[in-house]
Amino acid sequence: MEAASIPETPSAQPRRRFGDVLADNILWVLMLIALVIFFAKDPQQTLDDVKTGLSNGLIWALIALGYTLVYGIIELINFAHGEVFMIGSFVSVSIWQTLNITPDSAILPIIGSILIGLIVAMLASSTLNVMIERVAYKPLRTAPRLAPLITAIGMSFILQNVGLLWRPQPDSSPDLIGSQNDYFHVFGVAIEHSDVFAVIVTVPLLVGLLWFVGQTRYGKAMRATAQDPDAARLMGINVDRTISLTFLLGGLLAGAAGMIYALYNGTIQFNQGFTAGLIAFTAAVMGGIGNLKGAVVGGLIIGVIQSISDTHFGQVWTPAVVFAILILIMVFKPSGLFGEETREG
Amino acid sequence: MSTAAATLRTSATNARRMLPDWVWGAIFVALAILYPYIIQGLPISNPDDLLDASIYTLGLIIMALGLNIVVGFAGLLDLGYVAFYAIGAFVIGWLGSQQFPDVAGGKGIHILTPVKSAFGSDVPGIHVNFFFVIFIAAVFTALWGVILGAPTLRLRGDYLAIVTLAFGEIVPRIFENSTSGIFGIGSTDFSNGRQGITPIDKINFPWTDTTFRYPLELKPVYWVGLGMVLFVIFLNRRLRDSRLGRAWIAVREDEVAAAAMGVNLVRTKLWAYALGAALGGFAGVFLGTYTNTVNVDQFEFGFSVFILSMVIIGGMGNIWGVILGAVALSMINRYVLKELNSVPDTFGLDFDVTSISFGLYGFFMLVMMVLRPEGLLPSSRRKLELHGEVDESDHIGAESDHELYEVRQQG
User: What whole-number distance in Å separates Cα of residue A73 and Cα of residue A141?
Assistant: First the structure.
């Protein structure tokens, strides 16, 4: 039983036909076969791709969690989530620019400013996400499901436009961590500063989130609301506040992801949120939307697929590859790779 | 509904009752035909700009009506409609430009189009008459509509939206990267990459070699566009009241109930995709030749949302509402924002209004959904769905029978 999943599945196992079992595993098998083939072709390159993919995937995992949390609780694809992530990037870079921090600054100011950037970006993104919920989704709680989806797209456009006015041109983030420098080597794979940085920031957040949703009273309230909002309300749970809390958590993670992305990639631009949002959403779907651990694993897998596709098909094809995988999963396995049942499926 | 609005509505209905419907129709069509002359009499600085925006709008009206079949009638949320625009536009790019210079030994293939250029030399490439290409493209995109639709039949709501969105993202990427064969297989350049295919053949009637001379002379192309729009409106009205149209509405309202009543879900949905897509291709050809370029940059997600917001703001499922939405949004985009640009200057502000156009759309969509989810001119049936019993009480009595009657007759 997934302790930290939203929504929790009923314990009764549905009877499984052979076709279902095959469909359950065929995507795994195909992906493994592809990985083995690529590894046989060029082991060193593939190891390198896997490393890049995993550390990049951590960023997608953070964003994907925001999608999966929100979808789990109110069954809405929060289209504006990618833009919340973008705003997180913008805020952190603005802070470094205002503090006038450069890679040449002393080590303590750099660490301090990264921490400040992280915290402020997280706060800004989570506040924004909660506000979006208040303005765009809450008035439509009882409306047909199309309505909040459309306001979500509207919100995403507004935020993209805000980003466009804020920074009309792609902007570079100060390279505070020396992201391209090698840290150490494992099996001949260069582990760069950016990879270590991504792990150091992301892993505690992921563990913290899983603990929060799985172990605390608030997390319990979230899971209860995800299962049945009306029953949760009867049990004395403040459903509105719980939903706001979910958006708050999603925003916190998106803000952190935005800060990491800025340092990791070095450039930020107003439309980064759209692509990142779609990729992260693919990750969330891959892991089974509503399933927190699934979203993390999905993010990592998508990261690896991207970096392998970059190498073998060229970067121009990578978005098409990711979206094609999204379609394949949606069509053949809408419940995700882990077979978690959702209310949709 | 407030009393004032109700009074207004009643008096509008009374005014409409004064003449039979076909007279009103004739008046509107006559006004639309005379429109290029009318705007020349208006006190505006540059009537050609307005006419240019209007011609573009005609193309978008067709697309909005096409998307309305999928979203409004059949209730299948499609976020990747731009893919069909792209496919249609590329069909005219392939069949009406010099993209394939080597066919027929460099002499080119010409079907009812001018064989020689103005200077008397051979025109290489494939050149098929515009009036054939629109139908070829419609069939081709309809096929793609079915290809997209078939695997998504089991999906509903959000999931369907996401799959169509992904499709809408993949198609332009394929075109963008097909500079050496589809998927890079082969050596034929299908798309010219980011530069796009340009120039595109101008429209000419099959019985003459004289091509239209837009952008210098806009009236003929306006009338062709208007003819296409009228044809599409006729098609949509007939479709809506047909057996298929009623099946769409039944599927939209309750899939299970519709299936139980004997509606073939697969066929009904696939027809919605195919016809919606066909209109996208139809309009794509027109816009391709009018803008004289087929370029991947035209086919962004934003465009899908642009068309979708026309449908939503106008009133999902209502043909006249969708047309109103398309005209309003497109004219705001192509004309009003451009004209508004001078406003900040007069206050001494250096501010480009067009730079916030997408934010404005987002804002419109948001406000519209929160305040009036049924759109400007809602179909009566849809309004009942959205507002349920709350609004129904307003209509019960003298109005309600009449409203239901209107769904079939005017809608």
Answer: 12
